[in-house]
Write a structure and sequence with these properties.
alpha+beta, four-stranded antiparallel sheet, mitochondrion, 229 residues, Ribosomal_uS3m_fun, GMP Synthetase, Chain A, domain 3, 2 domains, 28% strand, globular, four-stranded mixed sheet
Amino acid sequence: MKNILTQSLAKYYLPGGNMLVTSHNYDKKAGSANMLNATRSAMSLINHFFSPIQALAGKPVFTVSANSVVVHVFYYIPAADHALNSNTVNNLGEALSSIFGRPVELRLVKLHYPYLDGHILAQFIALNTQDYTLAQILRRVFGSISPVKNIDSANVLASDLPSHIVGIKVRVSGRLMMERSRPRQTVQTQQIGSFSKDNLALVDSASFTTKNKKGAFTVKVWISQRAVV
């Protein structure tokens, strides 16, 4: 069953099968430390790159070899009239090449819905709490998706997709701007669909912490997908 999950899911979404990061092995510990620092700097730079165009970026995945670095990033732009600029993308690539000290290949994948990536969905919910209540935000998110209830149905089996979303859960810890403060009640949880524990299930979890005038709060999301076999 584990082979089914690896073949049908990981090869579509993760570079190099089920390996998130492939690092070059250095003979000296200093080399590994430098690569770790470079990766952290690159993640910060990528986040700053997407901010001016009001785009949300997923967690970058770095595939590092001795001669090059490949960076995979999912991103979502809420505004239809906003788009990435080729010049700024080239500038980002040059800056990352300078950080890693070797050529960098950027693979930026645009998502049309925020719920297709856990990190993007957590940011999307957190940023919208400045203007909307959690119920309004989740009504918009949950209203745009219908989790698959029967993964073995004829329509699902006929699909070319390797997996389908079967459930989404959101938990917010902290006080939100657009909601009345409730004593001793600072955690809200809502869920749509189901979560099953088997070898065909893949759960993408992520959290995002920020703050408002009432203090810090954290949004954590779980997106459950199930492989089609």
